[in-house]
């Protein structure tokens, strides 16, 4: 791989980071009464996606890695629902929803692929 190419894990982390910044950007304009409910919950779950993934990546034992990746995926599903919820409540525009959904779909597929790959390697040992 040359320096111009991006490996799978780096791309996944980059997309997760982009999604976190997207969520922080769109939640700045939420109604004040949502500050301590959907805003804090969506931000927390979205940060948990990338933080659990990074922590799992840093662990040496495959079963521990898998646990963190699964936690990351659970947080991802929570965050993705809050994207939908925010759109249905008209807290975010259609354009933002479409952008966030496209990003979330790619993250979800890549993260699920990582989990499956790790599970298969664990089963071989």
From TrEMBL:
Pfam families hit by this protein: 23S_rRNA_IVP
Signal sequence, start to end: none
Record-linked InterPro entries: 23S_rRNA-intervening_sequence, 23S_rRNA_IVS_sf
Gene3D superfamilies: 23S rRNA-intervening sequence
Superkingdom as given in the UniProt entry: Bacteria
Name of the featured protein: Four helix bundle protein
């Amino acid at each position: 791989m040359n320096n111009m190419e991006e490996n799978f894990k780096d791309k996944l982390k980059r997309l997760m980071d982009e999604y976190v910044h997207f969520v922080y950007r769109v939640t700045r304009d939420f109604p004040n009464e949502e500050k301590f409910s959907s805003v804090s919950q969506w931000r927390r779950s979205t940060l948990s996606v990338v933080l659990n993934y990074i922590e799992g990546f840093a662990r040496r034992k495959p079963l521990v890695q898998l646990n963190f990746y699964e936690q990351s995926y659970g947080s991802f599903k929570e965050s993705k629902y809050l994207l939908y919820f925010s759109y249905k409540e008209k807290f975010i525009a259609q354009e933002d929803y479409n952008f966030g959904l496209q990003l979330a779909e790619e993250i979800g597929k890549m993260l699920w692929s990582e989990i499956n790959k790790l599970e298969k390697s664990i089963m071989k040992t």
